[in-house]
Amino acid sequence: MLESQMETRLVLVTGPSGAGRSSAINTLEDLGFESIDNLPMSLIPRLLDGPPLTRPLALGVDVRNRDFSADALIELIDTLHRRSGVQADLLYLDCDADTLLRRYSETRRRHPLSPEGAPAIGIESELELLTTVRERADVLIDTSDLSPHQLRAEIVRWFAPASGAPMALSVQSFSYKRGLPRGVDMVFDCRFLANPHWEPTLRALDGRDPAVSAHVEADPRFADFFNRVRDLIGSLLDAFVDEGKTSLTIAFGCTGGKHRSVALAEKLTQTLAEQGWRVSKRHRELERRRSGVPLAKQG
């Protein structure tokens, strides 16, 4: 659904404490959003009933809000989606419990759900509380392995003013050994393709290298697979737009997340960009390597 001139752009930002919500709100403010953190949810409809807003709006909502509950937030989301003249998206900043605990240990902050006890208790309670909210996210960003700079880049990719296509696409690569990435809409397994890991001259390279991509594309099964994936996605994008979907995340997985899945993600990203879609890419395991975490073998 294309945004009309009179439509108010609204992004609700939530997620577990310590996942990067404040950083996301600050980034949205830098992108031209008017940002308000911890506004009571009951006041949000009144805010929209007031004088017309001249800028898009980013609202931080979390367990510190005095009237917060998961049911109330979901009811608010449903109300906003039914409201004419408002394009509302829920941005959920996710993070695994171990990373959240490490962040709290480093900063020595108190968790809002466990101010006098161990942060682990509050973290566990909050993640459970937000389960149903997470399922309703329009955009879900897992910050577990992201630096503040990488998080900012993700926010910019999703929420910078659109230059054409009404839906933002993200194409990712990952290793099945480390599990499926969170928040993915469509997953394709490319472990059946020829594996550059077994070529000594290619093993140290990754799927962004032309030699590696050429090796993967030389597999007789590659062309048919890629063309089917491209055509399937192409047939769905306009339908998703008509339904009002604002984002779609596509992922390719292989054994180590280094060669085949990276090559496929790179090629599909280029194809979608050439078709005029607003598309970003992320290579999860390559990011882990840059941060010093070893990659899984046999990519």
Provide a descriptive summary of the structure in words.
It contains 11 helices and 9 strands. The protein has helices at residues 21-30, 44-49, 70-82, 97-107, 119-129, 131-135, 148-159, 210-217, 222-242, 260-274, 284-290, and strands at 8-14, 34-37, 57-60, 86-94, 139-142, 168-175, 186-189, 247-254, 278-283. Strands 2-3-1-4-5 form a 5-stranded parallel sheet, with helices on both faces. The longest helix is centred in the last third of the chain and has 21 residues, at 222-242.
Q: What would a concise description of this structure say?
A:
40% of the residues lie in helices and 18% in strands.
SSE string: EHEHEHEHHHEHEEHHEHEH
| CATH C-level name of the largest domain | Alpha Beta
Query: How large is the share of residues in beta strands?
Result: 15-25%
Q: CATH-wise, what's the superfamily of the largest domain?
A: P-loop containing nucleotide triphosphate hydrolases
Query: Order of strands across the biggest sheet?
Result: 2-3-1-4-5
Tally the helices: what do you get?
11
| Main sheet attributes: strand count, strand direction, barrel closure | 5 strands, parallel
CATH architecture of the largest domain: 3-Layer(aba) Sandwich
Question: Strand tally, please?
Answer: 9
Give the proportion of residues in helices: 25-40%
Oligomer class: single chain
Low-confidence stretches: 1-5
Radius of gyration: 21 Å
Please name the CATH topology of the largest domain.
Rossmann fold
Averaging pLDDT over every residue, what do you get? 86
Distance between the termini: 39 Å
Shape: globular
The overall number of domains is 2
Question: How does the helix and strand content classify structurally?
Answer: alpha/beta
